[in-house]
Design brief:
It contains six helices and six strands; from the N terminus they run ββααβαβαββαα. The protein is α/β, with parallel strands linked by helices and 202 residues long. It has one domain: Uracil-DNA Glycosylase, subunit E, CATH 3.40.470.10. The chain has a six-stranded mixed β-sheet, sandwiched between helices.
Length: 202
């Protein structure tokens, strides 16, 4: 159902692919399109409050050419970064079912296999963390035991990927101060440093 503020806009309402630099060294993995964000605009994290926080942080870290994204044709370009979601359609109440999670997993697997330069995966929330590990495992990679646990600032090395945990920039987290701009900046600064380090050691 449309929100009154967007009554004059045609909603996309279709599964959303990831987007960004095909030569990305950093993959940002979110939960799912927002009902009135990516579901409306046709591009993940575009046109909602979570996206406002994410793209501003990517811009400050040098991964984006502008600090906001309001539509698919607003000129946003990502550099060395690719953004995707674990679930490709907006789930009811923003809570994907196990079936939705499993049905969407092959798309993330395919992106990981095609994004051969990715060395760092920034997981926005525990759901993204779990999806990243599932996708990597499905590519035939052994996941460390005990299984790495999500936490803000958590880090795990899994084959060629470094998995970084970050609280999701949802309003629930940003309005309460659970996630601050400096916390988000630190995660993306770490991601940039690790990606550069992996390039030097290659």
């Amino acid at each position: 159902m449309k929100r009154a503020a967007y009554a004059d806009q045609q909603y996309w309402g279709r599964p959303l692919p990831g987007f960004g630099d095909p030569a990305a060294s950093v993959l940002v993995l979110g939960l799912a399109p927002a009902a009135h964000g990516g579901n409306r605009t046709g591009r993940i994290f575009t046109g909602d409050r979570s996206g406002d926080w994410l793209f501003a942080a990517l811009w400050r870290a040098g991964f984006a050419n502008q600090p906001q994204s309001v539509s698919r044709d607003d000129g946003l370009k990502l550099r060395a970064c690719y953004v995707a979601a674990a679930v490709r359609c907006a789930p009811p109440a923003n809570r994907p079912t196990p079936i939705e999670r499993d049905n969407c997993l092959p798309y993330l697997e395919r992106e990981l296999s095609l994004l051969t330069s990715v060395r760092v995966v920034v997981c926005l929330g525990a759901f993204g963390w779990d999806a990243a590990l599932r996708a990597i495992a499905s590519l035939g990679v052994d996941i460390p035991r005990p299984r790495p646990r999500f936490g803000h600032g958590a880090s795990a090395q899994v084959d060629r990927w470094t998995i970084l945990g970050c609280y999701h920039p949802s309003q629930q987290n940003t309005f309460t101060g659970k996630l601050t701009e400096s916390m988000l900046d630190h995660v993306f600064g770490t991601a940039r440093w690790l990606a550069a380090l992996s390039t030097l050691s290659a």
